[in-house]
Design brief:
CATH architecture of the largest domain in chain B: Up-down Bundle
Helix content of chain A: over 70%
Strand content of chain A: under 5%
Shape of chain A: elongated
Distance between the termini of chain B: 19 Å
Number of strands of chain A: 0
Number of domains of chain B: 2
Largest interface: A-B, 18 and 19 residues
Mean pLDDT of chain A: 89
CATH superfamily of the largest domain in chain B: Cytochrome c oxidase-like, subunit I domain
Number of domains of chain A: 1
Oligomer: heterodimer
Number of helices of chain B: 16
Largest sheet of chain A: none
Strand content of chain B: under 5%
Helix content of chain B: over 70%
Radius of gyration of chain B: 22 Å
CATH class of the largest domain in chain B: Mainly Alpha
Order of helices and strands of chain B: HHHHHHHHHHHHHHHH
Low-confidence stretches of chain B: none
Structural class of chain B: mainly alpha
CATH topology of the largest domain in chain B: Cytochrome C Oxidase, Chain A
Low-confidence stretches of chain A: none
Shape of chain B: globular
Amino acid sequence: MSQDISEIPDRKMAIIAESLYLLNLLILPGIAFLVLVWLFIKYDNISIGISGCHLRQTFSASIWVGLLLVLVTWVMLSTMNHDSPYTWMIIIPYFVICHSALVLLGIMGLAKALAGKKFHYPIIGPSS
Amino acid sequence: MLYSSQAVAKPYFIAAIALFAVQVLFGLLLGMQYIPVNLPFISFITFDAARLIHTNLLIMWLLFGFMGSIYYIIPEESEQELYNPKLAIQLFWVFLSLTIITFLGYLLLSYATFAKITGNQFFPTMGREYLEQPTIIKLGLFIVLCGFSYNIAMTVLHGRKGMINLLLLAGIVGTTIIFLMAFYNPSNLVVAKYYRWWLIHFWIEGTWELIMEAILAYVIYKITGDRKIVEKWLYIIVAVTLTTTILGIGHHYYWIGVSEYWQWVGTVFSIFEILPFFFMVLFVFNVVNCTKCQYSNKAVKLWALSTPIMAFLGAGVLGFLHTLAPVNYYSHGTQITSAHSHLAFYSTYVMIVLTMISYAMPILRNRKIVNGGLSQRFEILAFWLMTVSMFFMALFIAIAGIMQVYIQRATDLALPFIEIQNSLMILYWLRSIGGVVFLIGVIIYITKFLIAKSNNL
């Protein structure tokens, strides 16, 4: 019999939240984010301790992911000249560095969740 | 030091550091040949000689570093003295002599003369990238590797068998067996390239990666004290490495003349080659989070925690960036490859050897391992100078590569290689500045070993 998600222990919920953040960045963009949004809406008010912390952090960080990787890249692509090599010399390194940094933050968040500890995403995570 | 035979690691580490400095110096000379700087010593050394020294010394000093690391780790992990410490020292001198002869040959003779003098015409194996060493040197290196494997295997077989020492044994035996490919040089260029990549790929992305993982696991175990969790992660990482690496060789086969299915095989398996580095970062931070890490040598912790992060970026991300066949069609053989190889070699192998040296050298030299010592401060400064400058060097080379791909391959103009070099000049300048900072980092790193014992508190 499958376990109701509200009965999932604190640490497991934290691991799920961090995993969804990473899945959104790596192999299931959009889909993993929607699942994370659903979890956040359903359990944010009742989650305390590390699960609440990781849910809020990953939800906020995922919104920043969208802004930094999708919106900013889209703005650059739509305003810059596609026939100039300089456009690609800016956009490709920006996207790669930004994406890698966000993935590394997610791995560190997942490591904290696995250890049953809280994690605060620097700059892109809510302070409380 | 738990076992006196661990002391054989010391000369290997000293040789590794000395050769590392020479390798970096020649790398800087190479970088300066791209920019209009007319220093007399730069024009004295031809580009091809400097490049041979830069790439071949890298392989040699990393092997010295691995051998030193393994000689240090194996007695502890096997819980007994090294099987034959005398053999280890004898092999050190043989290996050092081979390295110096190779270095002087590249520096003082033309490559053709060096090939003739060393009798390449009787058994031709020279002239292939990374395998440029004379046949007789290759034979000597193979004997050194066999003696090394024998010494380690006998120690492990007579002692405790754990995950770390068995993995190191698998790594060095694999390295030795795969080196046999250096002697196979068929006249068909496609077949020759096919098997040359067996050696290069299965060393760098296979057996060396296993050795790197084992050394990292050992150091993390030593600074956290939790063997169980370290070995659990090591099983996962090794399994992922082997699963992805073997067919990941396909990314070297895209354009050498073999069947097209390699483009699919190489692409699919290479995508997953980033996973071992992903798990390494997760492993290191998970173990550190799960244990009370109170190890006093701050420099070791810095090297050990940074190695997987940098490896993820250099070997993982920059490798992934151009490993897909449709992307590689445009990017192969450009500065993007150079950016990847610089950051990947530094982050995966240079950093792990320096991590191990940082851990073992104070013990080998009977020094105290205490925070805040002058030596520690020098090493931490050297770490930041080397790591940050290498990151930016790789970034500048990658940006140069993007421009090169665009001008040379992606547009209808498709300018020849030499005509686009002026467009990249500013990036070559920035790369050389990065190289100067890196060399300063290396000098500071070496200086830390010269600090008197009394200042090392």
